[in-house]
Amino acid sequence: MRSDRSEKARILCVDDEAAVIDALASVLRRRFDVVVASSGPAGIEALLNEGPFAVVISDFQMPGMSGGEFLAQASVVAPAAVRVLLTGHASLAAAMTAVNEGHVYRLLTKPVPTAQLVEAIEAAADQAREADADRELLTRRVEAFSRHLVRADRLAKDAQLSRAATMRLEILVSELCQLAGRLAGQAAATGPFDRGDAQRLSTLAADIKGCAAQMCRTEVNNMAEGRDTELATAIAATVQELQTADLCSDSEIRISVPGAPVVRMQHVDLRQLLRNVIINAIEAANAAAAVDGRAPRVAVDVMTDTETATVVVSDNGAGIPPVSAALIFEPYFTTKPSGGVGLFAARQIVGRSGGTLTVASTPGRGAAFTIRVPLATPA
Question: How are beta strands 308-315 and 297-304 bridged, if at all?
């Protein structure tokens, strides 16, 4: 965290001109921990592999990926970093577009006097520290009731509790995720978050806890808790559940499960894992269909070797951009209007059973999520 002002703030400087980047780094290294990159793509790589950074500084006029385009992507890859744009060439309209799309904190016109540059970066670093403090508070409040969300979601869906209670919980979860994202964005872009939103977060926490408590009191009669589960049965039951709930009426779902593999995972965990991944595929396929009229399709294919069952859930949606693919399993990250916990929860579930969940995607040609789970040991 960057809450201690005595520690040097980490700064990423991006410029395609070697002389400029060297001079910039030389000035700033007296006060900051500076990392440099010579292009927009190199800057994105640094954000992914060398972060976190308190401040990101970029020149506007760069070949290939402009500074405005880079900062727009940086706002997705590293939303906590405060962004500063340097320009000596851009028209006012182009610069303002870059400021708006990249959520830029400060626009500086080159040549920038050293004192003004240092003052601007210090202010940006202070902004990052304040945003960190707000995010820490937000994180503590979200973590305080995240366990209730997981338990309630598990009970609601796997025990087939009342649909009204399930819908109420999912509405609350969606609102929570949207609010958490809005607060994080406010903290990163404008400083301390709105206290009215903070109060709404507390109210949501109370509502979700109450909903979870009510659902926990409901009788659960048909929950299989065996340690090992037949994979084909779990997949068929999950798809049937989604069809009954009218969640996949517009999508064609093809299932291929050779043999009768049994995996080392509890029935309730496997069902929730499959549900989260298949729903994600259905939503991706349906979203693409709404844009270009394609027929939405989802496939669930199973393969086995001597030790592992592999389940590939693929869709013919729009695919996942590389920037989003790097973050797809992060909590509360989503490219949809709401949600953001399904794939994160799925990876946590499969990890508890010694398995893995990965994604491969070609933008425009869909995505494939691969689940690998240990096979059960024969009795």
Answer: antiparallel
CA dihedral 138, 141, 143, 144 (to 10 degrees): 170
Please state, in angstroms and rounded to a whole number, the distance separating the CA atoms of residues 129 and 222: 50
8 Å CB contact between 368 and 311: no
- Mention every residue, 6+ apart, whose C-beta is less than 8 A from residue 235: 255, 257, 274, 300, 302, 311
Write down the pLDDT at residue 363.
83
- pLDDT reported for residue 218: 42
- How far is the C-alpha of 112 from the C-alpha of 98, rounded, in Å? 19
In this structure, the chain runs to a length of 379
Distance CA 100, CA 95 (A): 9
* Beta bridge mates, 82: 55
pTM of this structure: 0.48
Q: Which residue has the tokens 């577009």?
A: 97
In eight-state DSSP terms, residue 239 is H
Nearest to 128 by CA among 187, 181, 57, 77: 187
**DSSP label of 249:** T
Q: Count CB-CB contacts under 10 A for residue 66.
A: 18
Give residue 171's pLDDT. 60
Q: Tell me, what's the pLDDT at 219?
A: 37
Task: Give the model's pLDDT for residue 158.
Answer: 47
3 state SS of 107: strand
Q: What tens digit of pLDDT does each residue of 271-327 get?
A: 989 999 999 999 999 988 888 888 999 999 999 999 999 999 999 999 988 888 888
Asked if residue 255 lies in contact with residue 291, where contact means CB atoms within 8 angstroms, the answer is no
Tell me the residue type at 98. A
CA–CA separation, 307 and 245 (whole Å): 34
261 versus 245: the higher-pLDDT residue is 261
